[in-house]
Amino acid sequence: MHRLPRPSPAFIVALVALFFALGGSAYAIGSKELSAQPRCAAGAVRGIALITGAKTDLSGISASTYTQAPSLFGYRWSCTGKAILVKRDPQAPQGIDVKFVGNPSSIAIVSSAASGVANGGSVARQSDGSFLVVMGGSNAASGGPWQGQWNVPFVIVLL
Question: CA torsion angle for 157, 124, 121, 110 (degrees, to 10)?
């Protein structure tokens, strides 16, 4: 009759560690202590809007009232589920105010959505909770300097 080899101390420690690792994971899943991150929590993406300035000349929108016209957006989402509004900024040349209603975010990044064209932009939080976005680029045909432009589509992401 053949005897089983005696287990080493390292093998016993490994088995105990495996038991506790599997047991802890099973307990956490069974007790539902693992919860999803709240939609508007700090560190989560809190809002996205694709403003399609190439399809709609943004110079034609109102500087006095916000609009949520679907033709202005290629995509839009806010963690609050509330409206996303845009208007021309009356103080900033070629500036667009984007407001995510009820959204607690104070951080935003902006990027050009134009393909094949080197455009840039800036974004700044306003006192009313909106974000001022100014997009532009160089007039490559004439070699001109950077200038704000109304027809540059952009994506704004709130964090």
Answer: -10
d(Cα 50, Cα 30) in Å, to the nearest integer? Answer: 40
17 three-class SS: helix
Cα 15 to Cα 77: distance, rounded to the nearest angstrom: 48
pTM confidence score: 0.71
CA 13 from centroid of its chain's CA atoms: 46
52 neighbors 73 (Cβ within 8 angstroms): yes
Three-state secondary structure call for residue 155: strand
Tens of pLDDT along the chain (159 residues) come to 677 788 888 888 887 887 777 776 666 555 554 445 577 888 889 999 999 855 667 778 888 999 998 888 999 999 999 999 999 998 887 889 999 999 999 999 998 877 666 678 889 999 999 999 988 776 666 566 767 777 778 899 999
Nearest to 157 by CA among 47, 2, 10, 13: 47
One-letter amino acid at 33 equals: E
